[in-house]
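Forwarding these from the shared drive since the link keeps breaking.
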Amino acid sequence: PLDLQLFMLQPKQKGKKGTPKGTTKAATNADPLQQLIHLVYERTGYPAKQTPLTTTALRKTSPEVSPEACPVQPMPLIPVYLQSHLQSCSASASRPTPQRADGSETVTITIGTQNKTIQTVTAGVIIQQLGLLEHFLPRQGRYNTTEYKIQWRDFTSGAPIVSGLQSDQLDIGILGDYPLLLSGVSPADAPSPVAKTRLVSFVASNPDGAGNTVIVPNCSSLTSLDDLRSRVIAVPFASAAHGMIMRTLARADLLPEVTLTSIENLNIHRLTPRNNQADGYAYFAPLHDIASHKGQFRRLEGDMEQLPTFHGIVVREDFAEAHPEIVVAYLKALIAAQYWYETTPSALLLVSNWVNLAPDIVAKTLAYQHSDATGLFFPDTTIRTDWVEEHVRQLSTISGNEALGDINLSTWIQPELLGAALASM
């Protein structure tokens, strides 16, 4: 009995030639339960301290298995841990390769994720680990001979994902609210026109806007927002936290009086109160919880946010127009991943293992119904156009962000693909 949902995939065997190499005849003829037991013994090799598993005992735990199909097997006393290894295909290019001689096509799908940003795990690491995108990819019609190659690229913040989308290096990107908007405009210093994007779904949201904050060392004299005058705050530029701190300081008439410096490749495990990089750090969840958990930092008091915060899925426009069925398949995988996270008792521990963060940090960041922790973000695919509009309205009044007001939200937001995914689930 394992505390997780366990599945075993069997090769379809045809005659004597279908027997996998190295598999004994007894293991091949056994039912799936016996094949699994045989595999455990074969791979773990525990020769000592074994106790027999009687047919009676096995029948008590699995009454539908007949005695004839269950020969007596020794069982190890020490626990056996099984781990699945799911691999995704990869490629170096983001665009489809030319057709092969047989007329079939290889389509490469390159996805930019932020796996350490826990609120986005249902759009990235869960889909990847469970192989959900492979499951939903179209296989019929014009895709009946298509070979797919999936490349996952993980980043620590949204800026490189925006750059990857606009330079045709990424097809799909998972972004927080501010970088999500930046993907819809061309940078003023761009040497050539950049690729256009479309917002196709939300991933997670926080209606209270508490997903971003400012942290300071415990020994700091800073206690409130007003104390930031003439101070230096480090922030990942072009991130959701960057959008938050600009709006917050502008609302308090403090933006010209605070120096914002860029955090490059911040490693939370190396962040200490003695590194003197800045007086404080503006960051998005879950960094502030990680820092507080280590006991070296605290949140700065004050209202840092008055807008709902959210993360969403942005797709390159030309990719969505060329392969709308693939975008729908990805959104179906997202819906399935959110259902899995919300209903699977072992999901929290598995996600914790995949992202290498403590389970309580995961539960505090993304709401999980099997935990007592109150999550900051809630899994939700519904696009809240009114939230997007208000972010644009406030940010476009801040120097350097005027171009956000030029986004035609009626065409940039494309909810039809999400509607198609939901209708077919």
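-- next protein --
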Amino acid sequence: MSPPTPHTAKPRRRADRPRVLTLVDVPSVQGGAEQLALNIATRLDPERFESIFSVSRWPMTPKRRERDPSWQPALAEIEAAGIRFLPLHRRYKVDPAAWMRLERFLRRERVDILHTHKFGSNVWGAIVGAAARVPIVLAHEHTWSYEGQPLRRFLDRELIARVADRFIAVSREDRRRMTDVEGIDPSRTLFIPNGVPAPPPPSGLNVREELGISPDAPVLGVVGLLRPQKAHHVLLRATKTLVERWPDLQVLIIGDGPERASIESLIAELKLERTVRITGLRRDVPDVLAAVDIAVCCSDFEGSPLSVLEYMAAELPVVATAVGGLPDLIEPGVNGLLVPRGDPAALAQALAQLLADPSTARAMGSRSVQRRMQEFDVSVIVGRLEALYSELLAEKGRIVSSA
């Protein structure tokens, strides 16, 4: 797919409509941060803000772009929303030509707000935004472990937090760590949780039938990239305990990533080939989640994971580790259960509690969907960001229409 609305196009600007440029590394609907950035950029009220979506890593040739199929749905969303698209064609971590391209665009188009997402874009956004004298710079951190990496902590504190008008954290725990671990002035930080749009209804595809799973078998599910942070090995070791009591238990790992070979090796080592299957990337996640009874998030660290919000939207009870922003999403005994990280025995015990009491599990799922709609729908989060934009613009002497 060719880039929608090329950056060379210059639609006539309304004087009362501030320009907001959203910057992220890649366009994608797979990574949580990338998906949220896309959701924000495409859902800003077009009567109040002019939205521009920019990606720094954009291959020059269509053939190279086609290597990542997750980009195509993202570009389709950009085109459907009718917002402008600015690819920077960054080839290296430090690529002066790409960042000069952004700096010239920010100056020429008189962008009012530069809203960056994730560490790399936050760093370069702070540098380029300051150089271009963008009135408002916002940095959005989508979590990291805050362990090790002293250079990153230094750049968060001494560069990003000093330049950005606000440093947004996606969980209360991340905001606390910005202050306590990184030493950032708390007045510079702000907590805004993630949000997801209402998912499309399941198409009616019977995923259990497709995968050969009995209608009566209990099914656990986890969706996301297969990377070390997600600690799938904890779920596998918990599953080894659970199959002794529920021999027909099935576990679906929906996703792909660098840890796939390691996960497959552990599945074989634990002799769970008949219990656990890795489905790879699937576009029909609502159909897959309709086949699941209990959703799991056993990560070592998290911010505000979109996958858990998707579980809640699918009316699923969630068993998750009590890390990062997960306690913001899961209220124990209400819409799920929380367990310590890295503890297969505790995870197995919590899952067994729900597997043994399906009616309680279903009630938790019903409360999950209500909570997501009220607190974590993407429209709620976009509304909070629009209010923040307006507040900061007013401080700079700009008035934004409330229409």
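Residues 202 and 297 are 22 Å apart (CA to CA). The first strand starts at residue 19 and ends at 24.

- D.
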